[in-house]
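> call design_seq(struct)
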């Protein structure tokens, strides 16, 4: 494990020499990245930020399931460490649990595929968890933290639960990808909700999220027309 006092991005550091089963942890990340190239920054000492480098040992067609599986693992770890209700919003955002699906975002995940030694495809699993942020420190109004949710868990306690949960879900994914996908379907809070989808090309539409396909894409009934979403922003419009 590499522990850095400061890093621009733990994924960027890990990408310099990616080797399986290594961890890069930053006490403070100054230029964190999220999905769709968004920036992600928090005050020093307030968030758990790290990257796990793994060989998923998956067939190419199962790689899209990896971010979904990681979301389940991080949710498991946070629940164990904090005792809070955590829900999964497609594809891999973690929210404080609420009945209306509008809980603040407490964690984000960024996966990148790189070539390791011998050109073996490796996954950089970047994880950022808001642990000790106060209301006045939130990077965006839609964010939250474990402290705001009422948990006294610190970053070390969360890390100690998330890392083994990640190892467990990766073993399960290698053994039975379909079973992990089915678990995700059953736990994803987005399924069954009315959603507004913003696609990377600027198009947006609303509909009801009905399921996930075999590749983990969100299936949305948009006025009787079934659409599948592989990437984009999904907003929970109202409860299921």
């Amino acid at each position: 494990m590499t522990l850095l006092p400061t890093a621009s991005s733990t994924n960027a550091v890990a990408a310099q020499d990616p080797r399986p089963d290594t961890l890069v942890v930053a006490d403070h990340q100054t230029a964190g990245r999220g999905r769709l190239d968004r920036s992600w920054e928090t005050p020093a000492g307030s968030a758990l930020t790290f990257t796990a480098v793994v060989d998923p040992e998956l067939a190419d067609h199962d790689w899209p399931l990896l971010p979904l599986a990681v979301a389940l693992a991080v949710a498991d770890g946070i629940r164990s460490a904090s005792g809070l209700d955590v829900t999964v919003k497609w594809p891999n955002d973690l929210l404080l649990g609420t009945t209306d699906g509008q809980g603040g975002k407490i964690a984000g995940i960024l996966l990148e595929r790189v070539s390791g030694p011998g050109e073996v495809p490796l996954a950089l699993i970047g994880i950022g968890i808001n642990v000790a942020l106060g209301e006045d420190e939130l990077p965006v109004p839609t964010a939250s933290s474990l402290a705001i949710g009422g948990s006294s868990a610190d970053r070390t306690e969360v890390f100690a639960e998330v890392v083994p949960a990640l190892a467990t879900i990766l073993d399960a994914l290698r053994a039975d990808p379909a079973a992990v996908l089915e678990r995700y379907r059953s736990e994803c809070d987005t399924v069954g909700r009315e959603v507004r989808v913003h696609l990377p090309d600027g198009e947006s539409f609303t509909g009801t999220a009905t399921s996930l396909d075999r590749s983990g894409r969100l299936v949305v009934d948009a006025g009787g027309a079934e659409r599948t979403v592989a990437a984009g922003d999904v907003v929970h419009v109202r409860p299921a």
